[in-house]
Design brief:
Two copies of one chain form a homodimer.
Chain A lengths: L2 H27 L25 E5 L3 H12 L3 E5 L12 E2 L3 E3 L5 E3 L7 E2 L6 E2 L3 H10 L3 E4 L7 E3 L9 E2 H21 L9 H15 L11 H7 L21 H7 L17 E4 L5 H8 L5 E2 L2 E8 L4 E8 L5 E10 L1 E4 L3 H4 L3 E3 L3 H9 L5 E8 L3 H4 L6 E5 L5 E4 L9 E9 H9 L2 H12 L6 H4 E8 L15 H12 L5 E3 L11 H21 L1
Parallel strand pairs in A: 1-2, 1-16, 2-12, 9-19, 13-17, 16-23
Antiparallel strand pairs in A: 3-6, 4-5, 7-11, 8-11, 9-10, 13-14, 14-15, 18-21, 18-22, 19-20
Helix pairs in contact in A: 1-16, 2-8, 2-16, 4-5, 10-15
């Protein structure tokens, strides 16, 4: 069916059976799709005649708000965005030298990174299957570069294993895989498999185990060229008569198991962290800034929303000027519109004066806690991780409170660089949140020095974002559990009269920008249907 | 011991015991090292007094020749390089729109790629542990970007499996790993392990198998969120009420084993192919061009070496002008020097008139065959691999004669792009080498269309390099086997009177630029010791 016919069909469904039935029909028509590669989102048909220029208020210029506003504007709506910060992006944010940031409690940090260096305190990577985010990067010309998620030469570290000495990921990976495959090969050779694999398959399995585990001809994991080609050499191959490589010795399975370091090996196998991932060149805020450039004059920065009210005729939002220090001042203003996309985090929304919301939506807003997270960026004079340890990008994992160290995936072999010195969750994040910013940096330095002893000599400056102290989010992301989702999620995602919520919290991709994008698409499709059906 | 003392010690060793003893002493002093991160190579001490300005002829301006010449120049030698091509780099080469290339047999291709697009017909990636190459990139300001070796969303393809339908690498990886881990978990649960793992270790092993294999609570590989988070979803997570992801179903172990596709899974685990790898921004020839810029006026391009002769006083090389079409013309000229670094491939060297070489070295030169390899670059109007299939960089593997398809690791989401449409070895490479260039492209297009049916509609132009038809190498790289290496390698790498050989063939890193760099270091260290001892 063509576009006009399809819209007519949907309108008729909406009139007869109400919005829920219409939604089901939409889904069957394949309009409310999750992201698909190569598809550019567009609201179906756009507005005609009397509807053209209908006003929509968008609350929050994070990724969900920006995408909502851009697509609504493309479809012919007149949009106005109210944004707390003096910049677009919300959590999609980049800190650079000269930036100042005041957190809850009043502590102000000034970032003192050198030119060209940055920290993405919020999202920092884009999986290859986040088609929505990638589509906006393509449409708006945001250049991407690979984000090195898996670095076989980075460290796995535990205070309780190997005397606290960091191990190279390639060594743990090779020895774990090889040991497992050696064990299973022995079982197959002893004909102990009760799984129905015929003789040919058992022979294939032995081949596969030897190949995958780097086992020798007798299916053993032993020092030799096979396993050195996985875990690395005592001495690398070189040139000339003196260049013969020297094999390394795998460790025993028990050592690997007891170290617990195998827990980090599966990281890069998970769908969200499979290579390749990407980052915008120069910082994640390239994405919201590119979106914002499409909305000239439509974003009012430094406006703190105080109240949202709706009735059958429209939506009224009260808001006040707010400075970079978080102080609201000046008169309360009101903005009115026919419709509203509310892309504020639930943590903020739950603290506002809400009028005309259904009881179920209000309950849903208050039901979802927000995860705690802290990122700490540390600039060093010298890229000792590259120069001394040959770690170019990627991540080292540790059981220290810093949890990981992220290496810059840009400007390889430059002189200085910014490490992600901590990316903490849960209890570690609460502890860091309770510290003053300078103490967070000091603590991360002391901890990280257990992995990189070069820290004290090379340190220049640090900056941190504790998301529970962020005045514009009051937390990191919506921490859904299954019971809460079963009870509240569909309500939260369904348009409530003239207001529809959007953001990562209204998606099955929590904490990801892609969740914000796809939630925005879903929200404005609902709004658009209502507007057309009105 | 300080530099002067060390040199005196080495000279005295050289005088008393001869060069072989001296070499051993050098190695013990740690001078003849393989590449080390963060170390910048320098010849020890440099030349003084009468030695300063001593002439060295370097044959070949590939990576080995360029590095030899640069480091000799830095130490005070006067270098002259003779190079067959009109450009530096040898096999370290980049083809761009407008480039012309005449192969043996006289076929000339003109590359018609769009501006900014390129093919690296020789080396195309730099492992993180190739410290020598990385050091020159750093010293000379060659910017690097990640080379996506492992792409979980790229294809594994066999004509004989799954009806010829390409499979996503993540699916084969998840199902293989999960099946193996499920099998072993069953054995552990049934207490059939005869390996001495105590109860605690067996419990840890079960935890690890569940985690690594994405098994469920009962250690089974079954459709569900765990395994979907590895192999991908039937429908990805999305936004709004409709966004629930739909789990995928793993295939059975027998299907994976019989497909043979598991053979490609270990690729990214091998030391040379572990992430991260790198490529110079804009093409591999950025490296030789940066090296050549350090040698102004020292490289004579378009000179074909015809004869090399040495005696106790020096080296004489006869050479003639050669055009881009491979035709030699004009008078034979002679260059003379005290010493010579010969960085020509053995395949070329074996065809020259050699005078004054030891019989053992001549035998070694003739003993090593060269591997056949062909690369075919194909430019397309549109990046359908990205737009339609979400494959951003990396490699798809196939059992077709093209062997693999390499996707560009730069300018992601640009309009057009150049694929590596074939990278063939062995018999496949010989077949491609026997074809006319246009037929190679046609064949690669027809084969690749079995994986990417968009090929015919989107094709623009192609170019190929069959290394056995390259007039400046006559093959791809030195194909050492262990018996040949045992018999000839040390001889080949040891300075023969006034001539020392360099190149990937004189290393334990065949086919890699790092082999050329480390071979060059080793060669000029020998030369320098001889010069100082003379």
């Amino acid at each position: 069916m063509n576009t006009t016919t399809r819209r007519q069909f949907l309108r008729s469904v909406g009139r007869v059976a109400g919005p829920t039935a219409m939604y089901g029909a939409m889904a069957q028509l394949g309009l409310a799709h999750a992201g698909t590669p190569g598809k550019t989102f567009a609201l179906d048909g756009g507005l005609k005649g009397a509807h053209r220029g209908e006003r929509v208020l968008v609350l929050g210029a994070g990724v969900a708000g920006l995408v909502s506003a851009l697509e609504l504007q493309r479809a012919g709506y007149q949009v106005e965005i109210l944004e707390y910060n003096q910049r677009p992006g919300g959590r999609s944010w980049t800190l650079r030298g000269g930036d100042r940031y005041t957190e809850l409690g009043g502590a102000t940090q000034e970032c003192r990174f050198d030119k060209g260096q940055y920290l993405n305190p919020g999202p920092w990577r884009i999986p290859y299957h986040h088609h929505g985010v990638l589509s906006y990067c393509k449409q708006l010309g945001v250049p991407l570069q690979p984000f090195v998620q898996v670095n076989h030469n980075a460290y796995l570290h535990s205070q309780r294993a190997f005397g606290g000495k960091p191990q190279r990921m390639r060594e743990i990976a090779a020895d774990f895989n090889g040991s497992i495959d050696e064990l299973l090969a022995k079982v197959v050779q002893q004909h102990q498999l009760d799984q129905p694999l015929d003789n040919d398959d058992q022979a294939r399995l032995l081949d596969a185990l030897r190949e995958m585990g780097a086992l020798d001809r007798e299916y053993r994991l032993r020092a030799g060229p096979q396993v050195s080609e996985r875990r690395g050499y005592v001495r690398d191959a070189g040139g000339g008569a003196d260049g013969r490589p020297q094999d390394s010795q795998p460790m025993g399975l028990s050592d690997v198991l007891r170290s617990g370091l195998w827990r980090q090996l599966s990281n890069g196998m998970n769908y969200e962290f499979q290579m390749p991932l990407f980052q915008p060149v120069g910082g994640m805020d390239a994405i919201p800034r590119a979106l914002a450039r499409q909305l000239p004059g439509r974003i009012r920065y430094g406006r703190r929303v105080a109240a949202i009210a709706q009735d059958e005729h429209g939506v009224t939002v009260s808001h006040q000027a707010v400075g970079p220090d978080g102080r609201a001042s000046g008169p309360m203003q009101q903005s009115k519109a026919a419709w509203c996309v509310c892309a504020l985090p639930l943590s903020v929304l739950g603290q506002l004066d809400l009028g005309g919301f259904s009881a179920a939506v209000q309950e849903a807003i208050e039901a979802v806690p927000y995860a705690a997270s802290v990122k700490i960026g540390l600039q060093f004079k010298r890229r000792f991780w590259e120069e001394d340890e040959a770690i170019y990008g990627g991540i080292s994992y540790t059981d220290l409170p810093i949890q990981l160290i992220g290496y810059p995936n840009y400007d390889f072999q430059a002189r200085g660089g910014v490490l992600l010195g901590a990316y903490s969750w849960g209890p570690n994040a609460f502890e860091y949140s309770a510290m003053a910013p300078a103490d967070r940096v000091r603590h991360a330095l002391a901890q990280g020095a257990k992995i990189h002893p070069q820290y004290p000599a090379e340190f220049l400056s640090g900056v941190s974002v504790a998301w529970h102290r962020s005045p514009f989010t009051l937390g990191c992301f919506a921490l859904w559990d299954e019971p809460t989702r079963a009870r509240h999620y569909d309500t939260l995602c369904t348009m409530d009269r003239r207001i529809v919520l959007a953001g990562e919290h209204a998606s099955y991709l929590p904490a990801w920008q892609e969740g914000a994008v796809l939630s925005a698409h879903n929200a404005i499709e609902q709004l658009h249907r209502r507007a057309l059906a009105a």
